[in-house]
Amino acid sequence: MDKRDREETGFLSTTDHDEMICDHEDQNMHVQVNGKNGSVPHDNSLEIINESQSKKLLYKVNDVPPWYLCLILGFQQAFTSISGIIALPVIIHKSMCMGGDTVGLSELIQTALFTVGMSTITQSAIGIRFLSAIDDMQSDHQDKNIHVQVSGKDGSVQQDNSLEVIEESQSRKLLYRITDVPPWYLCIILGFQQSFTSIGGIIALPVIIHKSLCMGGDTVGLSELIQTALFTVGMATIVQSVIGIRLPIIQGATAAFLIPVIALMSQPEWRCPFNEETSGNDTINLPEVGSQQHRLLWTRRLSVVSGSLMVASVFQMFLGVTGLVGFLLRFIGPITISVVTSSISLSLFPIITSYAQKQWYIAFATIALVVTFSQYLKRWKICELFPILLSVGLSWLLCFVLTVTGVFTDDPNGWGYGARTDIKTDVLTKTSWFRFPHPGQFGWPSVSIAGTCGMLAGVIASVMESIGDYYACALQSDAGKPPSHAINRGIAVEGLGCLLCGLWGAGIGTTSYSENIGAISITRVASRAVSLVAGCIFMIMGCIGKVAALFVTIPEPVLGGLFHVTLGMVLSVGLSNLQFVDMSSPRNIFVVGTSISIGQTLPNWLNANISSINTGITLLDQIINVLLGTHMFVAGIVACFLDNTVPGTREERGFTRWKKSTDILMENTDSNVYDFPFFQRFLNRLSWTSYIPVCPAFQSKKKRENAIQQTHF
To answer: What is the DSSP letter of 36?
Structure first.
């Protein structure tokens, strides 16, 4: 398969990574957009021109087609929107106490159709008459001081992105580049900054899943889980910095594995008896919270989660080591990535609502503080760097004041009791100062096939997220375009990090954190040494029991407000991938909307009716329930299927613009950035390493063939 064939079949194939060329060059057409100051801003003029040329309207706004054609086209327009019109009366009729009154519902639909028709006629006759405004919009576009120049292959105008890259590079002026080592004291300060930037997201996931694991009110167990999460994140960060992609990128807990855990724990075999509604004397058989029997209850569940995560992580390592990541991305585009990432946060909103509803005022106060520090006061460095810590700290302090003054009720069943700061303080005395997390501390992992299948969906979502982070981090660090071997190695090492999380019993998986990439642009420090120090800080905090215990005492409404912001950011990151997609295309609107809606409704129904799947084979029932109960899996499968089967051009689907977004990264000028440390010289002597996808000497088959041909000449 030659280069052109590979471009038509996929994007970002890691084996062909260095051979990609822009689609617009093949079309012998170039667009240059010049503003007033001679700069080259991004402009969609070519797309507007192409779209205008492709329309070639048969009838313009003021034209009147033959009467029979008017009728046919009128019916087409009416039936295009009729399903949405009749849907709303059907949805609201039960809320209006219409119940089974089908005649009344019929009259309601009639009225809706009639009023919609009147509104349409009025709008067309004396309203905005939107279609007639197209000519005005085009003239407005010409009035802007923007010049579009199109030239063919023999033209004098040549496209060059170097100006943007140079201007961006000059504006950054990194204080410390990726291979530089700042003074030791500065490394520690910046390491603390990097660790505290991501610590909110790391401790959030153990807090969210601990109830699903049947940990309940075992605050000591929750503190140990947070300790383990911090420790394993530190290990993963160090390994990624040393032998992974070797960019200054921090590893953190990912919500991609959270949904499969919740789906697995919702199965009848693993449902927590503490979470079940009981009546009478049914609660007598339940163990005391925090007792050894209770600990056995949740460690057994954690062992299954850990084992399933470990098996799935082996698959992630396999993707990286074999270079199959690029093959996967031939079928997974911006639409699928956007739908999957968005579905992760959408499915978690009911959970974070359960935290916030215990005291909505405190939750809203936390959200308001995060918005204030991160958006309105970001001109101050401390607010820009630590908005989460400042917001949580002030909300925590507010809860303490309202607790000691008696504003919050002391009735456990009263509203606002969950915001008190004195209901979990016993964990500070029960937890030891130092505790070293070790493999098998919660029992040795056991494997669930159904759980493994769910975790595999988390692996795919994590891989898609990380590749985007690699390019973003390389851009901020002036490290050049990550070569294929570095991307492969980064994915493989992330799989190793997840394997360590399962072995240690963290209950979570790891991935690259985009929040820390933003800190690089703020501090202008891209040193790899800082990320190593941050990893060490995570491991040290994971060994200090009182630190994790302190996080456990944070009032739940404060966490609820924090989760609204952090998971809202995950949703926004997912939706941001649609910037590469032509969202004016009805095809793409259909794919995105249908995928997200099915990804939310089907898992919600299945988790509420777990016994609906009954094939007669218990194991198969569990696998189907876990997979179809995982929101991001359902949404991702639907999106991937529709995106690859519904007719549409690669430009329309977003592949073309997605690929061009990576072309602003210049080729790596320092070959040592992505090389292995210490033993790279030894590897350079081995010719067979050019066939290993994770080795710096790795070359694609096409490159090797070209090299052989050149030697013959």
So the answer is: T
Closest by CA to 536, choosing from 176, 242, 200, 225, is 242
DSSP string over 102-148: HHHHHHHHHHHHHHHHHHHHHHHHHS--GGGGHHHHHHHHHHSS-EE
Residue 457's region, left for phi above 0, alpha for psi from -120 to 50, else beta, is: alpha
What is the CA 120 to chain-centroid distance, rounded?
40
Coil/strand/helix, residue 212: coil
Residue 246: closest CA among 477, 16, 465, 458: 477
Token pair of 170 as six digits: 């000059």
* Two structure tokens written together for 213: 């694991």
Return the ∠ at Cα 201 (arms to 176 and 249), rounded to 5°: 25
String of DSSP letters for 243-289: HSS-SS--EEE-GGGHHHHHHHHTSTTT--TTTS---TTGGGGSPPT
Under DSSP, the state recorded for 664 is: T
Q: Which of 244, 87, 275 is nearest to 673 (CA)?
A: 244
Q: Is 84 helix (H, G, I), strand (E, B) or coil?
A: helix
Query: Positive or negative, the Cα torsion across 593, 597, 600, 603?
Result: negative
Quote the tokens at residue 471.
């390019």
pLDDT digits (tens, 9 = 90+) for 543-590: 988 888 888 888 889 988 888 887 888 788 788 888 889 998 999 999
CA distance 694 to 421: 50
Spell out the residues 6+ positions from residue 527 whose beta carbon is closer than 8 angstroms to its own: 176, 177, 178, 179, 180, 181, 182, 187, 190, 248
Each residue's pLDDT tens digit, 267-311 = 888 888 876 654 444 445 777 877 888 888 899 999 999 999 999
Instruction: Of 186, 191, 189, 207, give the one whose Cα is nearest residue 392.
Output: 207
pLDDT per residue as tens digits for the range 184-217: 888 888 888 788 778 877 888 888 888 888 887 7
* Per-domain residue ranges of the chain: 67-128, 186-274+305-642, 680-712
Mean predicted confidence (pLDDT) in 602-622:
84
| CA nearest neighbour of 577 among 590, 564, 563, 592 | 592
Q: What angle do CA 642, 581, 163 make, to 5 degrees?
A: 150
Per-residue confidence band for 597, with pLDDT thresholds at 50, 70 and 90: very high
Token pair belonging to 240: 């990624």
Of all residues in the chain, the percent with pLDDT exceeding 70 is: 80
Residue with tokens 């994770």: 694
**Residue 226, number of CB atoms within 10 A of its CB:** 28
Query: pTM score, two decimals?
Result: 0.73
